[in-house]
From TrEMBL:
The active site is at residues 41, 125. Homododecamer. Belongs to the type-II 3-dehydroquinase family. Keywords: Amino-acid biosynthesis, Aromatic amino acid biosynthesis, Lyase, Membrane, Transmembrane, Transmembrane helix. It comes from Herbiconiux ginsengi. Its EC number is 4.2.1.10. It is an enzyme of class 4 (lyase). SUPFAM superfamilies: Type II 3-dehydroquinate dehydratase. The record marks 36 as: Transition state stabilizer. Pathway: Metabolic intermediate biosynthesis; chorismate biosynthesis; chorismate from D-erythrose 4-phosphate and phosphoenolpyruvate: step 3/7. Substrate binds at residues 99, 105, 112, 126-127, 136. One of its GO terms (molecular function) is 3-dehydroquinate dehydratase activity. This is 3-dehydroquinate dehydratase.
Amino acid sequence: MTNPPGSTPTGPSPSGAPLPRILVLNGPNLNLLGTREPALYGHDTLADAERLAVEAGARAGFAVECLQSNHEGVLIDRIQAARGTAGEADGGIAGIVLNAGGLTHTSVALRDALAAVAIPFVEVHVSNVHAREPFRHHSFLSAIASAVIVGAGIAGYGWAVELLARRTATAS
Ligand SMILES: O=C1C[C@@](O)(C(=O)O)C[C@@H](O)[C@@H]1O
C-alpha cells in the first residue's frame, strides 16, 4: 500500500475541502515485515500496517500518505518536502508517523531533518526495542518525538495516527 509522495488515498472531505494529511514513513527493511524474523516482528505485513494507519486516519478526518524506503536520503528528502505545508491547499502534512528501523539507533541526520521541519511525529517500533540488544535501547529520535509507541506490533501504526490526529485537532 506504499503510495507515491503526494497521494491522498482517502480523498477530499465531504465538503470538498482537502483533508489534512499524516505521513507514515517506514525505513530500512520494513518492506520485509511479515516474512522477516517473524518471532520478533510477527506475520503482519507492511501493507497491513499501512492499512491500519489509513483506516485510523479516515475515522479521524485525515488522509494518510505512506512511504517506505531503504534509503536514509529518500526519507530525509520526504521529511524536508513536508516542511511548512500544514496549511497548504492540498491539505499539507500535519504529522508524521515514523518507524525508522535501524536508522533509529544511528541517524543524527534523520533527527536533524525532523527537528528542522518541526512537524509533530510519533516514533513507532513493532518490537519492544527495550527488551532487545543494548544497541537498540538508544534512539536518536525519541527525545524530539511527540510520543513513542514500542512493542505493540502493527497496532502501533493505527494508534500513532489516532494520537497525532487528536493532538493536531487540539493544537489548532
Ligand atoms: O528494523 C527494525 C525494526 C524496529 O524499528 C521495529 O519496528 O521494531 C526495531 C529496530 O531496532 C530494527 O532495526
